[in-house]
Structure to design on (631 residues):
């Protein structure tokens, strides 16, 4: 009823090619931005900001990174956790070498190291695809994890073997990282970078480069005969994807955890990101946010929601119940719509547009 | 006056039509299987050239050789005066060879518009860097190509399915979108691999009209593989007939129809 585009005419290709061509969508995205930029910082508790919003945004960013590779370019990867690790360790080394530099710059730079490593491990994709490629990215996962443990230079010969985030400032003396950084500062840092990178990724995927990735994904032979070079398309997808994962990994350590052992970037992290991408919807940036929200925020809500509504049960029972409920919901949603939450959202929008009729 | 008739007039004036593609003594085998044996023929600029033959005659292999997907063991292919030995599909595409496929090979996850836009890939030159921002050169280029793509959409009368994901379209329309994608490459030589397979009479008539219009309006040279003999004989200027990887006839539709070898290949012969 409210979601109608009737009367909204496009008279130029510029207007027709907008990301949100429909007025209602523009209002919706504006509302979400206001919630993120104003409502959450004003009303959210420290717990909500540091334990829900910051990790949610970081996981969304990592999921976008994997979605570029798996969802848009069709190359299955199980190495996203390790690529996040490369970003984190690169950022740690950069802050050691350039202690006075602005942290945001270093975080953005650290993604390039991850991109370079990603391209190297993307080389097998020129020969193999599908599950076999997943196995070679699994090799990247284990090799890089081994490096994080066995190369002491990476963690500055720290006795604990972990990286601990030093205090770094930027933008005129604001403390951006370390124990003294306020949750709100860290939140705005993460939110700013997530918005920036999401916009850039949207720009890439809607242009020539993104189309060449999707061409390779949907029909690689036809893509080659049209003039896409598989080498360029696949490696650029690996580079961009690993860059985004690397930035997410750097943010994960510097803005959320504060310290990280190599185990933080284990295969479990890769799987978590992959599930977020699949559940949210492969080949969609909005889906990345939906998947991350579903897997990260829902368990928190259930865990703290059950005692809040008066169901009085032991803490470990809550933990187990949460796992069972979330697991069941994942199965339910994948049966209802294998293309992810974003597909459900699209179907809902299509239905709203023609309501009250079943079809046009 | 359009490009094709100009070419024809020029050809009449000199009496020597310009040869666009020349295939000389090409042989292709996969291990012990000889797909193509010692085939030679040429395609003249501006003509519609049909390649016909029974199933397994090597027609599709021939197209794959022409656009660089297969590398023949022997023989020379000359395109626009330049001979080549081994060529990547990417290079064939950038020299102006486009094709459609026997089994529709559209990008299923993309809309009609994006599928046809994808044909413009090689014509879009703006560096990756500009795509990060979208505003500026990347957008100017995108809109310039969108305008060209809309012309093709109008030409093929598929405006109503512009936004539809191609996976949901009926088969006849998918074939038409695939033709649109090939046209978007602005090819000089268009290879059509069974453009009318599995179509009903009305769709075949539509497709025939589009092929003739492409040839006359854009002056595109067309190589056509088709099993419907009525269509082949009506559309094409010259026909080459293959059987078991060998060329058995070459000439105008009338000549080919009267050729005893061709009749034997299609109807069988008692030994």
């Amino acid at each position: 009823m409210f979601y109608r585009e009737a009367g909204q005419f496009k008279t130029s290709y510029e207007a027709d090619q907008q990301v949100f061509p429909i007025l209602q969508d523009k209002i919706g995205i504006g509302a979400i931005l206001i919630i993120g930029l104003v409502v959450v910082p004003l009303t959210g508790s420290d717990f909500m900001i540091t334990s829900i919003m910051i990790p949610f945004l970081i996981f969304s960013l990592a999921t976008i990174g994997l979605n570029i590779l798996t969802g848009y370019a069709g190359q299955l990867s199980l190495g996203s956790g390790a690529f996040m690790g490369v970003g984190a360790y690169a950022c740690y080394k950069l802050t050691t070498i350039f202690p006075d530099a602005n942290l945001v710059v270093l975080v953005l730079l650290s993604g390039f190291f991850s991109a370079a490593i990603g391209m190297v491990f993307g080389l097998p994709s020129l020969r193999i695809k599908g599950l076999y490629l997943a196995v070679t990215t699994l090799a990247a996962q284990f090799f890089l994890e081994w490096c994080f443990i066995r190369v002491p230079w990476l963690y500055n010969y720290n006795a604990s073997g972990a990286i601990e985030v030093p205090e770094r400032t930027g933008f005129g003396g604001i403390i951006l990282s370390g124990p003294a950084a306020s949750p709100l500062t860290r939140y705005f840092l993460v939110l700013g970078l997530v918005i920036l990178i999401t916009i850039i990724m949207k720009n890439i995927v809607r242009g020539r480069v993104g189309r060449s990735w999707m061409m390779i994904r949907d029909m690689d032979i036809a893509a080659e005969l049209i003039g896409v070079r598989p080498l360029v398309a696949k490696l650029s997808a690996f580079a961009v994807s690993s860059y985004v994962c690397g930035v997410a990994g750097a943010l994960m350590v510097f803005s959320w955890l504060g310290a990280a052992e190599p185990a933080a970037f284990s295969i479990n992290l890769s799987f978590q990101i992959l599930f977020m991408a699949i559940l949210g919807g492969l080949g969609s940036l909005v889906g990345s946010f939906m998947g991350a929200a579903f897997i990260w925020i829902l368990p928190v809500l259930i865990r703290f929601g059950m005692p809040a509504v008066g169901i009085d049960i032991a803490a470990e029972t809550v933990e187990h119940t949460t796992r069972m409920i979330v697991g069941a919901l994942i199965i339910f949603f994948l049966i209802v719509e294998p293309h992810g939450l974003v597909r459900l959202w699209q179907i809902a929008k299509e239905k709203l547009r023609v309501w009250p009729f079943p079809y046009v | 006056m359009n490009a094709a008739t100009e070419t024809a007039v020029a050809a009449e004036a000199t009496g020597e039509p310009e040869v666009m593609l020349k295939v000389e003594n090409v042989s292709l085998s996969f291990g012990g299987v000889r797909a193509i044996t010692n085939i030679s023929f040429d395609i003249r600029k501006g003509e519609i050239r049909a390649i016909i033959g029974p199933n397994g005659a090597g027609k599709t292999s021939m197209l794959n050789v022409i656009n660089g997907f297969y590398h023949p063991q022997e023989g020379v292919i000359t395109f626009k005066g330049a001979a080549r030995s081994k060529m990547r599909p990417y290079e064939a595409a950038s020299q102006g060879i486009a094709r459609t496929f026997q089994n529709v090979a559209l990008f299923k996850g993309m809309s009609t518009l994006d599928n046809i836009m994808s044909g413009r890939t090689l014509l879009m030159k703006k560096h990756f860097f500009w795509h990060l921002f979208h505003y500026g050169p990347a957008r100017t280029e995108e809109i310039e190509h969108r305008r060209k793509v809309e012309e093709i959409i109008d030409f093929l009368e598929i405006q109503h399915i512009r936004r539809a994901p191609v996976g949901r379209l009926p088969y006849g329309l998918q074939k038409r979108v695939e033709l649109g994608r090939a046209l978007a490459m602005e090819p000089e030589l268009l290879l059509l691999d069974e453009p009318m397979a599995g179509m009903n009479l009305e769709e075949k008539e539509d497709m025939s009209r589009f092929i003739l219009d492409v040839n006359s309006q854009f002056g595109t040279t067309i190589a056509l593989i088709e099993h419907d003999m009525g269509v082949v004989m009506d559309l094409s200027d010259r026909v080459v007939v293959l059987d078991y990887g060998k060329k058995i006839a070459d000439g105008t539709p009338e000549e080919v129809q009267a050729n005893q070898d061709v009749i034997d290949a299609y109807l069988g012969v008692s030994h």
